[in-house]
Amino acid sequence: MNRKLKLQALAFGLIALPSVALYWVDPIGLAWGLLALIATGMVIGLRVS
Amino acid sequence: MLLDWLLAVLPVATILVLMVGPRWGAAKAGPAGWLVAVLLAALYFRAGIEVLAAAQVKALLLTFDVLLIIWGAFLLYRVIDEAGAIEVIGESLPSLIKDRGMQALLIGWPFATFLQGVGGFGVPTAVTAPLLIGLGFAPLTAVVVPSIGHAWSVTFGSLGSSFNALMAASGLGWEQLAAPSAILLGLLGYGCGIGAEHAAQGWRAVRRLAVVIFILGTVMGLTQYLLATNGLWNLAGFGAGLAGMVVGYFMAREGRPSRALLLAMSAYLALVVITVIVQLVPAVREALGSPEIRLEFPELSTARGYATPAGPGRVIPIFTHAGALLIYATIVAYLIHGRAGQYRPGAPRRILVSTITRVIPSSLGIAALVSMAVVMAHAGMTEALAQGLARAFAGIYPALSPWIGGLGAFMTGSNTNSNVVFGQLQQRTAEVLGYSVPLLLAAQTSGAAIISVLAPSKVVVGASTAGMGGKEGIILRRLIPYCAALLIALSLVVWLVAQR
Question: Which residue in B466, B376, B384 sits closest to B429, CA to CA?
């Protein structure tokens, strides 16, 4: 797998895994943190695709 | 109110501008659309963290639901292709049929439909264009014929992934959506047959083969309708293509199918048997149906008062999902071709690597687009869009509906993505205006199917396989009149039916 695909896979993971975690998270601060992780995944996806 | 509408349209406009202007792919433009949607949802439409978090979890469920089929479909296709079966199917057809008009028609229409049914992702044009060039057709013709020919089967193609996305986005089942979608697409099928033959050999050939086109269109349209409306929607595109190939063969045959062709088709037969058993045998369905992914969500409200009712997100039955059926068929296919000694050393690795390489960018794009669409729906942005469209186009909205689907397909590169982005919008607008929701969702997916063949990403695939890289504009110009004619006819039919 080339570097671009690895980064795209990382971006997908950063979107998917925190999205799963969001279902079980109660404290609001933690939820914002997970949303920030998802946003990071989106930005990586945008930059490398 | 106008400001609400303008801001609600901004994420969609962002994707449109980025994909059409600088030609960004869905994996690049999708995240941009999501970022715009989340910022607007939080800052202007005042969706709190609870709404944004729940929307994101629901989006992941939808994403997983759509991706299971895409991953499974491509894995199955690669397992069969690696054994050389796709090549055998493609090479066998010309030797069985000598008439050039019939060759173009059968390869560019039923065979391209069949390939869309089992593979999708540009596979119909990628496989058939070199075949047609080999038969002596000009490269431009070789790309245009299958591009038009398979358009009608995109929704139920890729083993129903676009239709599944329509169900996922709207929350409606196949019981409501299959009939109107199959009827509209079935009618478009005749137009695709006429268009494909016209692109190959002109009006003279269309007149000469009019009866054949009518019979094949009827057989394929009816097969698609019967499969889709009996719960076998994942086989509807594939079954239609297969029925068209069999009937076309008997109408034009000048030889007998070889053992190699029958072996090449065996994996698809296995898929049919597995799907029929799981979908239609209650004992099997019950035995496999119990483990499912199901998450419950409370009622969610934005600070502006837009509420989403409580309920589960997308429910995913793990072992009876269409994606799981594809995995079962993939295992059977691998065993069949393996026993026949058709794999060279290193095949499993090549299959896996090519599948992963192919699905990662589309997975990222779909995750971003689905997330954007679900955030928009939960923040009340889709509602604002629907209200604006309903006010502006109240009388003619049904005629506009296929064009919105088409716009989505053109800008996102796929029927699936268009259904994800615009499915809920079309649904809400239909509800606000009092039109039939299944009809307008069928119009959405039909318009998206036709226009998806114009999407830059698909045109690039066709151009590259026909040795026309860099001449995509020429292909696009040749395709546009056919797609426009089909879309105008579709608009007229939808508008007339909606008036009843």
Answer: B384
